[in-house]
Predict the structure of LysR family transcriptional regulator.
Amino acid sequence: MELRQLQYFQMVCQLNSITQAAKKLYVTQPSITNSIKNLEKELSCVLFDRSKKQLFPTVEGNVFLKRVDEILKLVDNATTEMKDYQDLKKGILTIGIPPMIGTFIFPIVFIKFKQLYPNIKLNIVEYGSIETRQMIENGDLDLGLIIGDSDNNLLTSLPILNSELLVCLKKEHTLRKKSTITFEDIKKEPIILLKEGFYIREKILESFNEKHVQPNIILSSNHLETIKGLIISGVGISFLLKEIVEDNDKITKIPLKTTIPIKIALVWRKNCYLSTVSKVFIDFLNANPLTAQKNLD
């Protein structure tokens, strides 16, 4: 049995036609026909139903196709991996990162990683955590730093940071002296949130709902600087990660009485080939899960 035979068989199954498969693979029809006959002889079974105009795999053919798909995928992965080893110094890594993480975690990670691997280029794709997770599950991204619950049958995760949301007010706000804030305290306050598709927005609305309080949402934005500027100007209040505002002396930060814990993790798809540069980045963060904080120096 040859690799070429498996490739011919797979293409015929995909196109249900020897003629179309031959065109796609730039080979002659007799080459594919003879290859399949030899396979059937070697396996002692009929792989295609030839009673109709189009070719469809038999029951045995479908069972064999599953194994062929696995084998050819492994071959492709092995080829790609070997190429990755050759090209590591020229590697490109695309990472999905929500804007809120990008403002305080990634710059620190980026600086240290580039010091260690100056020839690896990092491409950043900025979406909310929900969309980033979906893109990884769909195979559109290799890695993602996400906010929220990373427990998922499709994903593997590496915990990076545990944080919490703080209520953020202008410095002179009437609630500024409270040690903690309840949702009842802010039920009439104008609220500014991240736009739909952001995990933090969902958690906040979920918490309001659990407390049976209807939030007064006046604005949604995916720009953190805009949100912070509006808070400082007294336009409204918001909820931001502790690390984002802890050094901002123009904003009053108060914990919620019922804490909303936030987990940040690096995630990737389970049982999926990871490029060498992806493994390098995972190993880099795994060496110290707290490297995403300010102790990266």
